[in-house]
Amino acid sequence: MDSFTFQEDVPVFCVTAVDGRHGAADAMQALKALLPANERRHFYGLFWPGRDGGTYKAAASILEGESDRSEISTFTIQNGPYNSFYISDYPSQPDAIDRAFDMLRGQHEVDPDGYCLEWYVSEHDVKCMVPLGRHYQSFTGLNR
Fold it and tell me: Which pTM value belongs to this model?
């Protein structure tokens, strides 16, 4: 487990999956079909656990000049500290993302109402992250 900090908010386009996490792949395909291919674009998954499979949104970074696409919903990934876990070759490990989020959400410093964030670093690698709570204070050796 590592820590990661988004220095700035990240605005994203998103498509909500019909069936929670089970519909994640279909939501990502639908999102990619709506956006022009661009190698600078980052792809994410946002998941709020809950009843009925929770809510899953496939997300993609909004690039310069794209903010006027009103037919696609948007979300902002909040800046700040996150706990993270990197998974190499996640397609070969079907349960790895769920296991990573179980571990990350079990940490005492995470925001209990926060979302689970998947950052698809490449076609085969993903960084799983959860935001830390409002009262989290990074350790400096001087904390009391």
Answer: 0.88
Show the tokens assigned to 26: 């279909």
Distance CA 68, CA 105 (A): 35
What is the rounded CA–CA span in Å between residue 43 and residue 59? 6
Mapped onto helix, strand or coil, the DSSP state of residue 15 is strand
Provide the β-strand partners of residue 97.
Answer: none
pLDDT in tens, the chain (144 residues): 899 999 999 999 999 999 888 899 999 999 999 998 899 999 999 999 887 778 999 999 999 988 778 889 999 999 999 999 999 999 999 899 999 999 999 988 888 888 999 999 999 999 999 999 866 555 555 544
Exposure b/e, 12-25, CB count within 10 A at least 16 = b: bbbbbbeebbebbe
- Kindly give, in sequence order, each residue whose CB lies less than 8 Å from that of residue 70, ignoring residues fewer than 6 positions away: none
